[in-house]
Amino acid sequence: MRKLIFGIIRLARPVQWVKNVFVAAAPVYAGQIFVPEIFGRTLAAVLLFCALSSGVYIINDYFDMARDREHPVKKNRPLPSGQVPVPLALIVGFALLAGSLFGCAVISRGLLAVAAAYVSVNGLYTLWWKHVVVLDIMCVASGFVFRVAAGGLAVGVPVRPWILLCTLCLALLISLGKRRGEAQLLGENAAKHRRILGEYPAPFLDVLIVIVAGMTLITYCLFTFHSGHSEKLMLTIPFVLYGVFRYLYLLYVAGSTDAPEVLILNDKPLAAASVLWAVLSAALFY
What we know:
The protein is mainly α. It contains 13 helices and no strands. Helices cover 73% and strands 0% of the residues. The radius of gyration is 19 Å and the shape is globular. The protein folds into two domains: 1-159, Orthogonal Bundle (Tetracycline Repressor, domain 2), CATH 1.10.357.140; 160-286.
């Protein structure tokens, strides 16, 4: 029983929940996160997106189960390894989706609309769009944009266009880096595991990464200029520069094939830059 419970927890991919901090972006940058009611609604939205994303991951894992058995790392996931029975996994997945969508409806119609759009795009990704070159990466990146929009709609604060554009560029950079790491890890077997990986030769990925890395830095700089708050927010730019450069170093020099969320948690310099950026941003806002 203990092994089964642990498998269900792994199935929900709690390590991925770090992505849901993006839900808090709009309230934080609106300077209202410490208003008790705003904080409570933001926390609820973050938790609901944790459940929602876990449900999406479980359903996606079900459809990818056969291919994952041939993957050197993914074969150890609960479904392809047989740690969690398929019927139980589907029950948990759909229960998380239904429960989180109901919770979003309780908070606001806007949050429900964004959550439903998030689920719909991920459903199309699982069934079709993951096999369409470039569109697959854009679908993954859109999840971060949905999270930012969800935070704003959950508490009723405006979401500035620059923060959405900056989020999109950062998410594309992360998605491209993940795709590159996966292709590098699988080597010649990449296309056999997932046909779409054969459509991403290294030079093509490298060009896209360079373009998006530059766009990420430019959009973040412009965001600090037009955030509607003190221009002192520009002081956070060096930490973002370092974070992007460190991420590129890990990809190209260190040869890391780890997922981005693992890199952020395990690479001390990158983690330190992220924490310092967050602390300085908070100090400048509050």
